[in-house]
Design brief:
The chain has eight helices and five strands. By secondary structure, it is of the alpha/beta class. α5 runs antiparallel to α6.
Length: 209
């Protein structure tokens, strides 16, 4: 049995064009849906896939009605094939129940894999080039040496609240705690001399004034 799936992006559009094409193709049942291409949840598509049985064929007006990307398209069609269900796209004249249609999808799969490999290679090349220039990945430090020195000096003054110290150096209290885990009760001078490397915070050890 041919089962049609029609999708429009907004309620302002009409599925009539897709419905007419699917009916002309001989679809005995058509599932219609209003959902953007970026939306992951598509209840009517799920219903169509659940309703179909081995020997059926899912028919769409155009490939982009079914999937948001080549990868998603291939995964969906491969899942259908594993259940013994065919796939047809009317606009692109693709039919996986034929040898030619299956060949097209093998080519799609190869191109998708090629694209993924290119992305991985480019990412690696970019990271290696950055390392060669002395740059490393990761999140930049919240406080530079100057800000750390200012925060340390402010923390020595018990009249200045912890929240005010954090505000003056432009970080949250939690971030300030991570640079000064001992707080006012810690050895601030030795912390500065050690470069105040960021360590695990212990907020319960700090009290505001």
């Amino acid at each position: 049995m041919l089962v049609g799936y029609a999708r429009i992006s907004t309620s302002d559009q009409s599925p009539a064009l897709q419905r007419d094409a699917l009916e002309a193709a001989g679809c005995g049942r058509i599932f219609e849906e209003t959902a953007s291409g970026a939306k992951r949840e598509r209840p009517q598509l799920t219903a169509a896939l659940d309703w179909m049985r081995e020997g059926d064929t899912l028919v769409v007006w155009r490939l982009d009605r079914l999937a948001r990307s080549v990868r998603q398209l291939i995964e969906t069609v491969e899942d259908l094939g594993g259940r013994g269900i065919g796939f047809r796209s009317l606009t692109e004249a693709i039919d996986t129940t034929t040898s030619g249609g299956r060949l097209v999808f093998h080519v799609f799969g190869a191109l998708a894999e090629f694209e993924r490999n290119l992305i991985v290679e480019r990412t690696r090349a970019g990271l290696e080039a950055a390392r060669a220039r002395g740059r490393v990945g990761g999140r930049p430090a919240a406080l530079d040496d100057g800000a750390i020195a200012v925060a340390g000096a402010l923390l020595r003054d018990p009249s200045i609240p912890i929240s005010e110290v954090a505000r003056r150096v432009g970080v949250s209290r939690a971030t300030l705690y991570s640079y000064f885990p001992g707080g006012r009760g810690g050895d601030l001078e030795s912390d500065e001399e050690r470069g105040l490397t960021q360590t695990a915070c212990a907020p319960e050890n700090l009290t505001d004034t």
